[in-house]
Amino acid sequence: QSRFDIDHIRSQFPILSREVKGKPLVYFDNAATSQKPRQVIDALVHYYSYQNANIHRGIHSLAEEATAAFEDTRDEVKRFINAAHREEIIFTRGATEGINLVAYTWGRQNISAGDEIIISAMEHHSNIVPWQLLCEEKGALLRVIPVTGKGELDMDAFRKMLTGKTKLVAVVHVSNALGTVNPAREIITLAHEAGALVLLDGAQSTVHLDIDVQELNVDFFVFSGHKIYGPTGAGVLYGKKHLLEEMPVFLGGGEMIKEVSFEGTTYNELPYKYEAGTPNIADTVALKAALEFIRHTGKENIRRHENELLAYATEKLEQIPGVRIIGTAKEKISVISFVIDKVHPQDVGILLDNRGVAVRTGHHCAQPLMDIFCIPGTIRASFAMYNTKEEIDEMITGVQRAIKLLS
Ligand code: PMP
Asked: With a 6 A CB cut-off, is 176 part of the ligand 1 pocket?
């Protein structure tokens, strides 16, 4: 499938044929979680129907098959983000767990009183709270890169913030609330020059951009499978091998140990050192199907289509009096956040839902960012590979009707 055939794409997502409130579903909440193609659903059913066993321990055939399927996903992830080593891929529940893992292990070992951690004003709560907790515990300082009126990082302010005290820069690669693509390469270079490590929150970027962790030279990178057409509960932490090797363990239990005795315990090698207990085998196995699906469809093709949708929706929304788009960065992916004069976002969300159109309203787990724009929240439409201009027309009509009704 080299050409991008939207009908073919849509036919692979069973949920798109359902109705909501008697109307065809228009799913524009992809930044929260994307829908799943049949390949992913089939992979889950196949695993439980024919392969289910606990992994890494058994010597029987089923255990070996299940282990191979699980480990195949690690190789696929390695390829997907171009990691140098498969041991650099740690399976987690999602982006949130990956960030917490780094905060609790690397953070506890390396952050002390007076050190500084830099985040940005456009972070998701999951890339704020773990660092707040760490800073409170250690007496370290959390510093915040300001965001401009266009919804871009203030890079001059960032440059000035970097000092010998900076130990870590933890920033979002792509903003879930605004769609802004941050200059990751530049951030990483600047941080490294100051002697700091960088964690990139790739929860939103991994589905839209080509991710090459070696080219980025990023130290830690996290993402969630459920936002890239894969199952919930299966995510990834990438870390440079030498860092993961030096870091202390996280959760204790089975699988992460080499030998246990009451005199002392030795730990397993990477990546198992960070995968205590029975992992989420089925969802991790099915994540491979999602990554293959994206690879076969072609990220370039997907991006072209999504960019067209973004441009189209932006143009249509800008024509509606009273609508203001929040986040007008030069580099954006297909997320569009907007507010309407004298109309509460939630009321619009409810009226759109009555037309079968699913958008997200509220603060998008980025309350500090909403405070900067002095708004309680936005209406957010986020587009995926299966969305169409006709669906955007449906939303636009819904927004126009909502304005008539509510203002
Ligand atoms: N970071 C960003 C930018 C996100 O959009 C999200 C999910 N909305 C997360 C982190 C957290 O992802 P998860 O809830 O899957 O752990």
From this structure: yes
The C-alpha angle with vertex 170 and arms to 192 and 383, in degrees rounded to 5, equals 120
CATH no. of 42-295: 3.40.640.10
DSSP result, 321-378: TTEEEE---SSB-SEEEEEETTB-HHHHHHHHHHTTEE-EEE-TT-HHHHHHTT-S-E
Q: pLDDT per residue over 365-377, tens digit each?
A: 999 999 999 999 9
Atom of ligand 1 nearest to the CA of 201: 1
CA of 92 to the centre of ligand 1 (A): 13
Q: Where are the domains of the chain?
A: 6-30+298-406, 42-295
Interface ipTM > 0.90: yes
Portion of the chain with pLDDT greater than 70, in percent? 99
| CATH class given for the domain over 6-30+298-406 | alpha beta
- CB-ligand 1 contact for 382 (6 Å cutoff): no
Q: 100 CA distance to ligand 1 centroid (A)?
A: 12
